[in-house]
Amino acid sequence: MPPVAVFNDSSFLTTLDDRDWRSGISEAVKVALIKDASFFDWIEANAQALATRDAATMDYLIHRCAQMHLQHISGGDPFEMGSSRPLDFGHWSAHKLEQLTNFELRHGEAVAIGIAMDSLYSYQLGWITEHDANRILTTLRTLGFSLYQPMLDANNSTGVLKGLAEFREHLGGQLTIMLLEAIGRGVEVHEMNPDLIRQAIATLKEQEQQAQLV
Ligand SMILES: [Zn+2]
C-alpha cells in the first residue's frame, strides 16, 4: 500500500551540510527534465539561489516535487512495477559510480553526473539541441555539481559500462533507459551504444579540464 501521508519537515534541511543539501536537488532536476519543461526553466532561473541555500526557493522546489510525485503515484503504478521506470533517468550510471567511488560520491552527486551523461547522449543522438544540452549542464554546474569523476573513464570506462549490464539485471532482463527528446520530455530506449557513452564522458572530461584552466 502507498503511504497515507508523507511529511516534509523543512527545518531538517538546515541540519544538512552543503553536499547533502545540494544532492537532493539533482532528483528535482531529473523529474523536471523528463516531465515538465516549465519546472526546469524555474530551476535554471533559480539555480544560484538554490546553491546559496535560500530557504524559500528550496521550499518551493520541494513543494513542486511533491506535487509531481503525487501525480506520478496516482498514475496507477506507485511502485514502478511495470517495465517503465521514468524516475530512473540518469541512474544507471549513477548507481555504478557510487559503487566505483566506494560511496565517496553522494547519491545525488552521482545522479547529477548521470543526468549530464544521458543528456549529452541524447544530444549526440540528435534528440535535444546543443543549446538545451548546455542549459542542462550549466544549470547542474551552477547548482554546484561537478560533472566529471575520474572513475568515469578509468580502464576505457569498463567499470561504468558494467553498470549498464547490472541495470539490465536489476530490471529483470530487459534494458529500459530513459533519455530526453526535449527538455521536459523523456523517452525510453532499450539499448545504448558504448562508444557514444564514451563520447559523452570525453565531453564532460574536456569541459572539466577547460574549466580548471580558466
Ligand atoms: Zn535517485
Describe the structure in your own words:
Helix 6 packs antiparallel against helix 7. It is built from nine helices and two strands, in the order ααααααααββα. With 214 residues, the protein is mainly alpha-helical. The chain has a single domain, classed as Dehydroquinate synthase-like, alpha domain. The protein has a two-stranded antiparallel ribbon with strand order 1-2. Zinc ion (ZN) binds next to helix 6.
Question: What's this entry about, in short?
Answer:
This protein is mainly alpha-helical and 214 residues long.
Question: How do the strands and helices of this protein lay out in sequence?
Answer:
Blueprint (H helix, E strand, L loop, with lengths): L9 H4 L4 H18 L1 H15 L3 H19 L17 H10 L6 H18 L5 H13 L15 H13 L6 E6 L2 E5 L4 H20 L1
Antiparallel strand pairs: 1-2
Helix pairs in contact: 2-3, 2-6, 3-4, 3-7, 5-6, 5-8, 6-7, 6-9
The structure holds zinc ion (ZN).
Spatial order of strands in the largest sheet:
1-2
- Terminal-residue CA separation: 52 Å
CATH superfamily: Dehydroquinate synthase-like - alpha domain
Number of separate structural domains: 1
**Residues in β-strands, percent:** 5-15%
CATH class: Mainly Alpha
Low-confidence stretches: none
Give the CATH architecture.
Answer: Up-down Bundle
Rg estimate, integer Å: 17 Å
Bound molecules: zinc ion
Binned, the helix content reads: 55-70%
**SSE sequence, one letter per element:** HHHHHHHHEEH
Q: Per the principal axes of the C-alpha atoms, what is the gross shape?
A: globular
